[in-house]
Amino acid sequence: MSEATSGIAWDHPDPFIYKTVVEKQHIDDFQHTNNVVYLTWMAKTAWEHSKALGLDFAAYAKINRGMVVRRHELEYLAASREGEPVWIGTWITGNDGRIRLRRRFQMVNPQTGETLLRGLSDFVCINIETGRATRMPPEFVSTYRLTAHVPGDA
Asked: What is the pLDDT of residue 154?
């Protein structure tokens, strides 16, 4: 069993994982991680996964195409506190091969195995120069292929 799956009940197999630690500036008046921080971690995880797949901003600029968020959905399940590790797993669960892409996320405390949050982000492909939605280039269709199957997402 790999470190990525040891003791963690991931929602889907083989997530891309971004690891972080809750820092003092992440804490709100309730003494747990502010909800906006979770959204920031989702965005960071998506971008790190994209870069790991070979699609960084330089690649986007070269083809004048990019993926931008259209919608987020977050379900907060448990709190995290200063000093605790948080692992964010992501999967590409939808890609219509035209304009839309969906990512799902699961945040866990790897020390306890507890799921802190489940979320999703819907993206659309845009022409970077105009900002308008446009058809995905072949590189996006092949590189952003599904990494998990979720009925209704594909």
From this structure: 78
- pTM (predicted TM-score): 0.94
Q: Cβ–Cβ contacts within 10 Å for residue 130, how many?
A: 9
* Predicted local distance difference test score (pLDDT) of residue 3: 46
Residues 6+ apart with CB under 8 A from 31: 81, 82
- Sheet containing 16-21: give its strands across: 16-21, 85-95, 100-109, 114-127, 65-76
What whole-number distance in Å separates Cα of residue 4 and Cα of residue 13?
A: 10
HSE, side-chain direction, 13 A CA sphere, residue 22: 24
Minimal CA–CA distance to 40: which of 67, 20, 10? 20
